[in-house]
Design a protein that fits this description.
Shape: globular
Number of domains: 1
Structural class: alpha+beta
Radius of gyration: 12 Å
Order of helices and strands: HEEEH
Distance between the termini: 19 Å
Helix content: 25-40%
Strand content: 35-45%
Largest sheet: 3 strands, antiparallel
Number of strands: 3
Length: 60
C-alpha cells in the first residue's frame, strides 16, 4: 500500500477548492469549508499546519 504524501494545509485547501468547496470561516488554525449540492451541504474542517499528520490527511 502506498504511503500518503506529506503536504500542508494550504495545499489541501487548494485541492478541495477544485472540488467546488468554498471557504466559510476560519477559527484560529482551522478552516471550515462547505460544498452545496442538490442533496444538501457537505462540510470539511482543514487544519492549517505546515505538515499534516497521516491520520488527519486520511480523515479529510
Amino acid at each position: 500500500m502506498p504511503k500518503f504524501p506529506r503536504i500542508s494545509g494550504k495545499e489541501i485547501i487548494r485541492a478541495i477548492e477544485k472540488l467546488n468547496f468554498i471557504l466559510v470561516r476560519q477559527k484560529s488554525n482551522h478552516v471550515i469549508m462547505v460544498k452545496f449540492s442538490e442533496s444538501g451541504k457537505t462540510g470539511c474542517a482543514v487544519p492549517l499546519h505546515k505538515i499534516l499528520a497521516v491520520g488527519a490527511l486520511s480523515g479529510i
